[in-house]
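INFO worker-7 received task bundle
INFO bundle size: 2
INFO processing item 0
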Amino acid sequence: MTATTPELDKLNELLKKFRFAMVTTRAEDGALHAHPLTVQETESDGDLWFIVGTHASAVEHVRRDPQVGLSFSTDGTWLSLAGEAEVVDDLAKLKELWSTSVEAWFPDGPESPGVTLLKVSALSGEYWGSAGGRIATAVALVMSKVTGERPRGGENEKFDVPE
């Protein structure tokens, strides 16, 4: 992948705004399940890293079906990604990503047999942004009620992550 493409530049800019993701996986019966996960690292090529428990349903789902969806939301910006996930058992990478906040969930540290990594490679996505953030959005909604017209402004774009 070339990290200088406009899509990757925009994706990397957007990902800096988010700390948490809802990662949606598919269970054996086909049902969709969303899992709140903390983004531990984002790479410039659209890969995201998460620390998860080895017995988490997300791990089981990804091992069977690697297709995932990720949703992000923050003040006036929303991002949806589609990607492929994989469970990565890499102690060196786990130690690199480890932090004291992770210890709240995994008190035995990165060498615990109950912890692993989930790597998601983004393939495509869509983002929405409201110009001016939360206050501008609130004003636009009020103006919409007063005028009867749909709120205008903001950004929306779909993109593919180059391979």
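INFO item 0 finished
INFO processing item 1
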Amino acid sequence: MGTNWRVRLSVLAGASALAVSVVTAAPALAEESPGGLQEVQMPADVEILDGVAPEPDTAVPAAAAAPRAAGASAACLGTTAAYGARGCFQPSGDVVWARDTEKDGMSAAVGVYTDYGRPAAVCINKLGVDTWATCNKDYSENGKVRLRVMRYDGGNGKFYQPETWSGWIPVDGQY
């Protein structure tokens, strides 16, 4: 009979310790992380470009990744998305597209990095939610670009996660 009492006491003590550890170690449930937004570090020499609205007769990229037809130089390649932002690269004209997809007071930002050492540039869409903006740059036709999609806060000039990277995209559009 004394053994049953000890077993019960041991089980009760173990359950209590487990309950206390779960309560103290469990993460808080919130819409944002406890530390708030996480800033993304950008290269010191990054060029900030304000995106402009595309011309009225310009076909904007499809909501999903644009299919690449053979020889279609106007296709938007490397479609990449993160919370609140979407971007792609159009080899014809070296145009970077940035779409803001969330009404949260922040802007979509699409960073462009090259494989040949050119300083990074970031196209920022300050036109508002559900809009596309473009930035036209001239990249080496022999090079490749890589997109980095993230959020931008114009109030403090900082970039924030979540962020997503594309693969390398040939500037000439030929894979």
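INFO item 1 finished
INFO post-check item 1: Helices lie at 2-25.
INFO post-check item 1: The two ends are 79 Å apart (CA to CA).
INFO worker-7 idle
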